[in-house]
């Protein structure tokens, strides 16, 4: 579901977020229209809009974990976690976490990858939200869900700044709802 469909229709924050995303054609390979969110961070007000919208959605919902997907999910997830009183759990690329980890391999639109999480990062009673910058094929979010649920925690929802409207990847999310702020820019 897009934020506009959930009571934020006409919210100027969404327009500001959308306008701060630039498109880099043919990156990282020909045919990909990369949605670059880094300009969003250059304006503290727009950055805070995204964080605040997520915090407004998840505050007082019993969420105990905000899991951020490396790398761009890392930029939002700790902020949201602090605002709602949850712990931040980093979901990192293979080989980046010290200590005992569990791994989940997955396919991307333009390749293959692996996410890892510390085995003690979540507990069976935890309710988690997985946060990333964009969902297209759903591969990364699907891997994140599997990691968290393998420990026995519950993934309540996935959240992204950008959501491709015809998200074929929703089928890969094991029935988990997804909350997206804006559509991709062209």
From TrEMBL:
It comes from the Eukaryota. Keywords: Cytoplasm, Glycosyltransferase, Purine salvage, Transferase. Pathway: Purine metabolism; AMP biosynthesis via salvage pathway; AMP from adenine: step 1/1. The keyword Secreted does not apply. It catalyses: AMP + diphosphate = 5-phospho-alpha-D-ribose 1-diphosphate + adenine. One of its GO terms (molecular function) is adenine phosphoribosyltransferase activity. NCBIfam families: apt, PRK02304.1-3, PRK02304.1-5. Belongs to the purine/pyrimidine phosphoribosyltransferase family. Homodimer. This is adenine phosphoribosyltransferase. It comes from Genlisea aurea.
